[in-house]
Description:
By secondary structure, this protein is mainly alpha-helical. Helix content is 45%, strand content 5%. The chain contains seven helices and four strands. The strands form two sheets. It has a two-stranded parallel sheet. Helix 2 (21-33) packs across helix 4 (49-61) and helix 3 crosses helix 4. The longest helix has 29 residues, at 102-130.
Amino acid sequence: MSNNDSLVTFTTPMLKAIANPLRRKILNTLSAMGSARAADLAQALNVPANKVSFHLRELAKAEMIIEVPEQARDKRDRVWATAAEGYTTGEAGEREDDPSGMVMGAYLGQIVNEEQRRLQAAMLHGARHYSGDEAGEAKARLMTSDLMLTVDELNELVRRLEKVIPAFREDLKNGKIDSAQPAQEREIWHVMTLLNAESLLNESHGGDRSPQNPK
């Protein structure tokens, strides 16, 4: 697998590799940085470099990261990059070594917990920011849209969205994005795209008995 591949479907070994919370942080940070050494990631995450090195090797075994020797200073210098632009859960039944979906279920459970924490922090920050209690630029942005779609139209939307972040990342790397702030002021921003059918809201809360159902 080469760097800059498009979205890759999670394999079971990949899901098992990122079952470790620190490993997920390392992968996410590496994705945001583009490429990095263990020492760079250790500094960014405030974790010992030898611990980061161990988890990098585990991510490499799962084919989620690769070495980029062209960026190394010498043969002993190890520079890492993610093996793909991003990952997707894929379709049910794609992972023959996880027919019950247990590994995927465990991964999704962890992600739900992390995203709930992020959303709670973002909403609390938003309330403080827009009430004037927190000065400076907003550190969270919320964008929502609603569309009437068939399955084919949804799939086309997903294909288009998949291209947005890689294209922006490339422009960022090539200095095509104007910024009044220097690159040293960059920090990691988490971007999550969730597409869900409105019908899930009521199905998940008991159908017609749901308090979310206005009928």
